[in-house]
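Good morning C.,

I know you're traveling, so I'll keep this short. The sequence:
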Amino acid sequence: MALLRTRARFAFTPCTCSSTSPLLRRQLSTSPRSFAPFLFTSLPSRAVIPIQGKDATKLLQGLVSNDVARLEKGETRALYAAMLKADGRMLHDIFLFPSSAASPPAPSSADNPTPPTPSYLLDHPSSSTDSIRKYLKRHILRSKVKLPKPVEGEEGKVMVAWRNREEEITEQQVDEAREWLEAKVGAGRDGRVEGMGWRWCATPGEPSAEEPSSYLFEQTTPHHYHLHRLSHAVPEGPEDFPPLPLEANLDFMGGVDYKKGCYVGQELTARTHHKGVVRKRGVGVRLFREGEDIPTTLLPEGALVPYPSLFPLPPPGSSLTLLHSTSSRPRPSGKLGSSLPLLSHSGLSTITLGFASVRLEHLEAQGEGPEADELKGVFVVKPPKNEDGEVGHGEGESEEMGGRWLARAFRSEWLEGKLEEEERGSLGS
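The tokens, ready to paste straight into the viewer:
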């Protein structure tokens, strides 16, 4: 009987944006669609720190989880990595670029006996700029490394470009876009997940600062980029990363090199990898209210418009606990990261997309029967305790807004592939 009551809770119509004002719906329905094959934007949530000096490569090699030598060799123009605490817990997710990515440092030769001074650009969360500068200075000591502070108004910007999923694109257009991005502004492929696009640091006064003006590109908003990365279940920034970086798929996204030398925080990361014990992984989630239909896909078909101020959401760090559990007192399965409300282009329906790190076994059916199968991967979202030690059911809780916030998690195709590689023992070995 308890299972039947649980099932009945969800026999309601899908969520519609009935509370959206007619004016907003009219604006959305008449707003122009982007027909350009590729989109680009700058990211205010990210900032750039220049790192220069004879010992810059050596310094960074001892502080980040990936192999900085790949930049020197020209194997990549955008190196994804993490900075960790000494105990292996997460500090910051970063990208490293050569300071002039279009012409990486050349090795010494008979014609060029003196190699250029190593110089890098550190793409990092803008909220952490001061703490990262202090962290770097603490490790520089007597190393020949400088951290130039740009003149106000001339700071570098992090730029991203990606394929417009709503448009048909020819191979010729892909080749033209790649040539422009990589040759003109020195963009590097974002190798975290296939389809993420390109990334680069735009430095004032250099070719990298030139914005794409080709018919291939159209400028959009940072929120559209966050929709793009959340649809690929890609974490970014402190909101998305739990203390243990592998639980947000840092290794699966190419952010860890297990064959490089020592770096700060290596021991826990390497030990976890070789033991093969990572119980939680990062997944895409759909947030919805209790009483609405359970989502069956992460992202529905059709045009979607990011609308971050549409309604309050559970904050990052909210716990996720199984809705349907065989335990009388289920423990939290994971935590919610960032999330983003989206409207259909007509403005008549809404969904909320997010990222979370959850226990993999809790994505499977808990128990037997159709009830357990229907509710697999569905979690109750509870924000962190307040000053009085109380746990809420979700920001924006009211009779008008609906019941508790719930979340359904979805394992992406790329995550499934990486888990299979890990099981075969061919990942990172």
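Safe travels,
E.
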